[in-house]
Amino acid sequence: QGSSVVRLDFQAAESLREPDVDGSAYLDPVSYQVRHTSVTLTRLNRAAAGVSSYVATATFRELRPNLIVVERMSALTVLRPGRSPWTIIGRSELQRLSRVEFERPLP
C-alpha cells in the first residue's frame, strides 16, 4: 500500500525434525502490528506426501484499534509431478474477508 514497514524474517532451526515454517512478517513501524506475512512450510516430506512446496501469504487489517483480522489469504501448493500427463501439479487458494458483523456493539 505504499507505506513503509519493518520486515522480520524467521527460519525454522535446522535441528528440528518435524515440519515448521520459514518466512517474513511485515510490521507497521509505529504500532508494530502485523500487516502482512509470507510463510513457506519446511520438511514437507514429513508433512505432506507428494508436495514439493507450500507457500502462504496473509494480509491483515485493523477493523478497530487493536482489533486485527486477516483480510486476504492466499496459498500455493506445488505437487511432485506424476507419471501421467494429466497429473495435477499444483493448486492455489484465495480467501478474502467479505464482511464482519458483531453480535453486540463494540465499546
Features:
1 helix, 6 strands, about 110 residues, about 50% strand, mainly beta
**Molecular shape:** extended
Largest sheet data: 6 strands, antiparallel
Residue runs with pLDDT of under 50 for 5 or more positions: none
Distance between the termini: 29 Å
The overall average pLDDT, rounded, is 89
Q: Rg, please?
A: 18 Å
Helix-residue proportion: under 10%
**SS content category:** mainly beta
The SSE order reads: EEEHEEE
For the biggest β-sheet, the strand order reads 1-2-3-4-5-6
How many alpha or pi helices? 1
Q: How much strand content do the residues show?
A: over 45%
Number of strands: 6
Describe the structure.
By secondary structure, the protein is mainly beta. The protein contains 1 helix and 6 strands; from the N terminus they run E-E-E-H-E-E-E. The protein has one helix spanning 44-47; strands spanning 6-10, 21-27, 34-41, 51-64, 67-79, 90-96. A 6-stranded antiparallel beta sheet has the order 1-2-3-4-5-6, with no helix packed on it. Strand 2 (21-27) and strand 3 (34-41) form a beta hairpin. The longest helix is centred in the middle third of the chain and has 4 residues, at 44-47. It is extended, with a radius of gyration of 18 Å. The chain starts with 5 loop residues before the first strand and ends in an 11-residue tail after the last strand.
Walk me through the topology.
Layout: E1 6-10, E2 21-27, E3 34-41, H1 44-47, E4 51-64, E5 67-79, E6 90-96
